[in-house]
Design brief:
The protein is an alpha/beta fold. The chain contains 11 helices and 11 strands. It has helices at about 5-15, 45-60, 75-80, 95-105, 140-150, 160-175, 185-195, 205-215, 260-275, 280-285, 295-315, and strands at about 30-35, 65, 90-95, 115-125, 125-130, 155, 180, 200, 215-220, 250-255, 290. The strands form 2 sheets. The chain has a 6-stranded mixed sheet with strand order 2-1-3-10-4-11, with helices on both faces. A 5-stranded mixed sheet has the order 7-6-8-5-9, sandwiched between helices. β1 (about 30-35), α2 (about 45-60) and β2 (about 65) form a beta-alpha-beta unit. The radius of gyration is 20 Å and the shape is globular.
């Protein structure tokens, strides 16, 4: 099934899946609104619809996915944090809305204080990618190239994005310089790598797959703790001795308004984790190179805080401060 067909069927299932055994005094007794802070049709939306379709079957409820793009996720975050903390309004938070954006912008929400951590969905590694026409076969070649060629450029999906902060972190740890070129999205950033205007990029693995598979770019290393099944010959940064990238991911999780009751959070978390270990969802998420990562609410909250602190540190040290 292609992505378009899946999204259509998933959306229909979310709207029309019958409730199973609802009662007025037991959660959930009505459909749950699941806010996604991006427009319909992209990778984040796909993750949300794939997850909630299966999650609803286990929870005995239906999820209604609400795409709420705009403001770089601010609109969705404000809607979520102002909602009643009864478990019937949840949001798919991800690394941008709860990590890199709060680290680089003054926002009308606090990613920790204004939300309740429900659980992690999963994450995809980021990949250091170079133009395959360059004389770079591996990470050592990359370091030699950037240290001997002083006029190189890398593209990002935008100033303050994960693709921006990641390269700045790598520059810090590996001691090289390359200039940043910010684009409005990952697609135009890739276009200029393919055209030779920029030489490097640090996207999520899913965005790199089609270009790497065609041989137009070369993946030198990935973040995370394990190699990708799709590119088993590509090492992790940890293997290469570059520390600090083992838990850096393009991640997706579930949050609700602050003050959610512990029993409702527990019900949501246990049912979500049950879905994440089922082979069906794992296979579906693999289309976006997402690895399911079941966590307790406390573990997800700790991960979120650590990730936020990492990007706050990079932004401060590199003087990356943007308007909201």
């Amino acid at each position: 099934m292609d992505r378009r067909s899946f999204l259509m069927s998933a959306s229909a299932a979310a709207l029309f899946t019958p409730s199973l055994g609802f009662s007025q005094d037991k959660f959930p007794s009505r459909p749950i609104s699941f806010i996604v802070p991006v427009a319909a049709g992209g990778g984040s939306d796909y993750v949300a619809r794939a997850t909630t379709t299966e999650w609803g079957k286990v929870l005995g409820s239906s999820f209604v996915v609400e795409n709420m793009a705009g403001g770089g996720g601010v609109i969705a975050c404000q809607k979520t944090m102002r909602s009643k903390p009864d478990g019937y309004t949840l949001m798919q938070g991800y690394v941008a809305t709860l990590g890199t954006a709060p680290a680089t912008r003054q926002l009308p929400y606090d990613p920790v204080k204004h939300f309740t951590s429900v659980g992690m969905i999963g994450g995809t590694p980021n990949a250091l990618v170079v133009d395959s026409k360059l004389p770079i076969q591996n990470f050592d070649d990359f370091l030699k190239y950037v240290k001997t060629n002083t006029h190189t450029n890398y593209g990002s999906a935008g100033a303050g994005s994960l693709t921006h902060l990641l390269m700045e972190l790598l520059k810090q740890k590996s001691g090289f310089q390359t200039d940043h070129v910010a684009y409005k999205g990952i697609a135009p950033a890739f276009n200029d790598v393919l055209g030779g205007s920029t030489q490097f990029i640090f996207p999520g693995l899913a965005a790199a797959v089609p270009h790497a598979s065609s041989g137009k770019v070369r993946i030198l290393a990935i973040t995370g703790t394990t190699r990708s099944m799709r590119f088993p010959d590509v090492p992790t940064f940890e293997e290469l001795g570059v520390k600090g990238f083992d838990d850096v991911l393009q991640w997706y999780g579930v949050s609700g308004p602050s003050g959610m009751p512990a029993d409702i959070v527990s019900t949501l978390n246990m049912s979500l984790n049950k879905v994440l270990v089922a082979p069906g969802l794992e296979k579906t998420l693999s289309i976006e190179a997402i690895i399911p990562m079941p966590m307790s609410p406390q573990e997800f909250d700790s991960y979120l805080r650590k990730d936020l602190q990492r990007w706050q540190k990079v932004a401060k040290e590199q003087n990356i401060k943007l308007d909201a």
